[in-house]
């Protein structure tokens, strides 16, 4: 919001505060100021000139030699290239020695041998943007009104003797998107009550609005307030200079008197308006409704828009003539031929305006105000003011009465608090008189009883509804810089991490100790990537309004994001990459918010050990990654319930090198090598991944670990080698030996796996070491041999092992 200091001075007395001081005070009360500009400090020696003659320069197709009266003893000669310069005009002249905003210094010069004593300026040369220059001046100089005084400072006429405060308005302070809203804010800061000029509305008693329009609303929730006035017998002309000046400085291009008044009222009240050419409506009926999916509308920018049920439209009873709150239709806009105007002032449901503006990419000053909310108390005031001004500028008449549908009245919200609550929350020692004064400065009526302060908030501050909002207002106006810094006086309570937090932190440290680096991936991705590697067959969660197609669905696995990171690094010549991530995946639930589940996932590619004079290269494989996962599970104390089951179900993983991870029979994750085709598509070598659901462990708080002393008695071991079918799993063998190994069996370790020469095809040789220990006595040979024989016999019977 660009605030004109001079415009603000119309309702407040700013004689005692400079623009920069005011900006600083506004910042201290919570509205951020992006900057303050004072054009007059940059522009010098720029005056009003009167063009006496303008003749085409010889041998030039665009230059004119003009003689301009500038308030000096003699008129001066100026060469001007503007195509619209003519004798008799009042213009803006930069005399020799003048300085313009682009740093250009004007000097006496010669153009094609002709002396030029200055420059006749266009608005662009004075610092105005091309987008706000009036149409009749966009290709040339700006012509001042005939009553401009020759030789006077021209900056006054075009408003550049003003200062402009650029406010960065947050959504909760949409009341400050109007000059009146800023005036109330500045008035509270300066302890003044803003005064606004009343509306002198004169209606034609012989004509009624009921003879012109009949207003109806299909759904009052979509459109709680809709009002319309009619102005007849108009002559649409160019706006006066004061109006053009205010619009241009606010960043709005002047069009004509009718459109300019609607924009001016929007800036003044924060209430967007729209003017229809009444005769182009071809109907007395005005119906506000949702659009139908088959409907289209050509908007003011000449683009045909395909409408949906999320778009709210104004119709002439049958066909759409405007997108409510966003943009009017091309066929009903005001032109130079318009004689009667139907002027609309309304409140539309903010979410509908937001959806329409986003889906059609039609954000505007009007739509932004409808999206953030409006002051319902001034809907009629803004309409009356605009109607009176349009009639005055166009020599028209306002038809008596307002056609309206109103289902919601302005609400004066009553909020209560106490002095103890204010001082206790802010750490201040304010008295009741000081608090009352603060609310009075804000324009809030208030009453005080023994126990509480009751504050009546006007509709212009619809952001205030709870006690905390009142505390914020007191803090703002009292001054954040005056609130004392204090330490809390409450009893100190020692804090500690929850089990889930401890486990998450431990997991991060463990993975880092294994050589994996932590990555953080974006939870939003494409639909294809969101569904890849999913452990749960659930529908994807899509955003209604995604930023782009690449960020439209919530992930159901961490692996897609990690693989993108690995691919990025490998493409930049980092061949050995090991990454992990602890994050949440999202699954859809019926009639509820998405379910969020914490997972840990990792990806490794390249080598574990590089080739050197001392060591042989060792590449990443399934077993290396499985070892990391097993070690992590073992440190959590849950390895005994873990089993690994071969799987071919995930199409993204290698069908012969993938296993499901089960915990007490519950499917919690997967380990596997990336499918060769997918690896090729991503330009990756052998890549192994894992992903585990951490929720069962986060909810399963383990007992405190206990430690035992080192055994006093020695243990012993036995080695066993045997041949089995290659389809027999290591886990099956382990289960058999653990089950029958006896009470002294402490550990089993696979130390050899062989297939090749001297081994029958389809067979494999396995060799294990079985360790035995009795912590209370020395083991006897016959006890160990007996248990060992049971192991060999069970292997022969249950996995058809051929003991070697």
Automatic annotation (TrEMBL):
Residues 410-485 form the B5 domain. Its cofactor is Mg(2+). One of its GO terms (biological process) is phenylalanyl-tRNA aminoacylation. It is an enzyme of class 6 (ligase). It catalyses: tRNA(Phe) + L-phenylalanine + ATP = L-phenylalanyl-tRNA(Phe) + AMP + diphosphate + H(+). Pfam families: B3_4, B5, FDX-ACB, tRNA_bind, tRNA_synthFbeta. This is Phenylalanine--tRNA ligase beta subunit. It comes from Alkalibacterium pelagium. The lineage of its organism: Bacteria, Bacillati, Bacillota, Bacilli, Lactobacillales. The gene is pheT.
């Amino acid at each position: 919001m660009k605030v004109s200091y001079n415009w603000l001075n119309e309702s407040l007395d700013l004689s005692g505060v400079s623009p920069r001081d005011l900006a600083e005070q506004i910042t201290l009360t919570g509205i951020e100021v992006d900057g303050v500009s004072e054009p007059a400090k940059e522009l010098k020696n720029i005056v009003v000139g009167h063009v006496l003659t303008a003749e085409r320069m010889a041998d030039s197709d665009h230059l004119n030699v003009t003689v301009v009266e500038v308030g000096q003893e003699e008129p001066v000669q100026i060469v001007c290239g503007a195509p619209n310069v003519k004798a008799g005009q009042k213009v803006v002249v930069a005399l020799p020695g003048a300085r313009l905003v682009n740093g250009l210094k004007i000097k006496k010069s010669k153009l094609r041998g002709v002396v030029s004593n200055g420059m006749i300026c266009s608005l662009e040369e004075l610092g105005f943007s091309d987008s706000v220059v009036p149409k009749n001046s966009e290709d040339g100089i700006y012509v001042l009104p005939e009553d401009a005084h020759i030789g006077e400072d021209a900056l006054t006429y075009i408003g550049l003797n003003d200062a402009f405060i650029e406010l960065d308005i947050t959504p909760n302070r949409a009341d400050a998107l109007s000059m009146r809203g800023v005036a109330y804010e500045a008035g509270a800061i300066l302890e003044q009550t803003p005064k606004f000029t009343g509306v002198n509305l004169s209606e034609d008693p012989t004509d009624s609005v009921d003879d012109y329009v009949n207003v109806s609303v299909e759904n009052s929730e979509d459109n709680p307030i809709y009002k319309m006035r009619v102005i007849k017998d108009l002559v649409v002309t160019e706006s006066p200079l004061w109006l053009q000046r205010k619009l241009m400085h606010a960043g709005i291009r002047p069009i004509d008197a009718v459109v300019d008044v609607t924009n001016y009222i929007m800036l003044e009240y924060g209430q967007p308006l729209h003017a229809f050419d009444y005769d182009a409506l071809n109907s007395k009926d005005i119906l506000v409704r949702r659009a139908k999916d088959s409907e289209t509308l050509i908007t003011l920018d000449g683009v045909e828009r395909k409408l949906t049920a999320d778009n709210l439209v104004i119709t002439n009873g049958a066909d759409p003539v405007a997108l409510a709150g966003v943009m009017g239709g091309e066929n009903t806009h005001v032109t130079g031929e318009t004689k009667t105007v139907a002027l609309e002032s309304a409140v539309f449901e903010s979410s509908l305006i937001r959806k329409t503006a986003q889906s059609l990419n039609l954000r505007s000053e009007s739509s932004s105000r409808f999206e953030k909310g409006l002051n319902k108390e001034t809907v009629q005031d803004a309409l009356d003011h605009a109607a009176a001004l349009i009639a005055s500028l166009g020599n028209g008449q306002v038809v008596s009465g307002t056609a309206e549908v109103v289902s919601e009245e302005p609400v004066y919200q009553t909020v209560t608090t106490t002095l103890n609550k204010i001082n206790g929350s802010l750490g201040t020692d304010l008295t009741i008189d000081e608090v009352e004064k603060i609310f009075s400065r804000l324009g809030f009526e208030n009453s005080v009883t023994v126990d509480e302060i009751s504050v009546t908030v006007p509709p212009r501050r619809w952001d205030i509804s709870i006690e905390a909002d009142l505390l914020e207002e007191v803090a703002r106006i009292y001054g954040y810089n005056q609130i004392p810094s204090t330490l809390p006086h409450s009893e100190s309570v020692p804090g500690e991490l929850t089990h889930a937090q401890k486990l998450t932190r431990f997991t991060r440290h463990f993975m880092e100790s294994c050589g994996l680096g932590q990555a953080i991936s974006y939870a939003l991705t494409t639909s294809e990537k969101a569904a890849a590697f999913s452990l749960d067959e659930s529908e994807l969660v899509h955003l209604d309004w995604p930023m782009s197609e690449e960020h439209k669905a919530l992930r159901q696995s961490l692996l897609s994001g990690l693989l993108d990171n690995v691919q990025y690094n490998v493409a930049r010549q980092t061949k050995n990459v090991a990454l992990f991530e602890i994050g949440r995946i999202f699954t859809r639930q019926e009639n509820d918010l998405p379910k969020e589940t914490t997972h840990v996932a990792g990806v490794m590619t390249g080598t574990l050990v590089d080739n050197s004079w001392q060591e042989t290269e060792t590449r990443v494989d399934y077993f290396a990654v499985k070892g990391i996962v097993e070690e992590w599970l073992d440190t959590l104390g849950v390895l005994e319930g873990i089993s690994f089951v071969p799987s071919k179900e995930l199409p993204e993983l290698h069908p012969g090198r993938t296993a499901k991870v089960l915990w007490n029979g519950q499917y919690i994750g997967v380990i596997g090598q990336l499918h060769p085709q997918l690896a090729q598509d991503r330009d990756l070598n052998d890549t192994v991944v894992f992903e585990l659901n951490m929720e069962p462990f986060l909810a399963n708080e383990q007992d405190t670990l206990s430690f035992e002393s080192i055994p006093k008695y020695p243990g012993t071991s036995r080695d066993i080698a045997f041949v089995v079918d290659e389809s027999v799993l290591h886990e099956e063998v382990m289960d058999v030996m653990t089950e029958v190994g006896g009470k002294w069996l402490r550990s089993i370790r696979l130390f050899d796996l062989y297939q090749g020469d001297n081994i029958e095809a389809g067979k494999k040789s396995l060799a294990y070491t079985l360790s035995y220990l009795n912590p209370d006595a020395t083991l006897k040979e016959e006890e160990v041999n007996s248990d060992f024989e049971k192991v060999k016999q069970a292997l022969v019977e249950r996995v058809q092992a051929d003991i070697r």
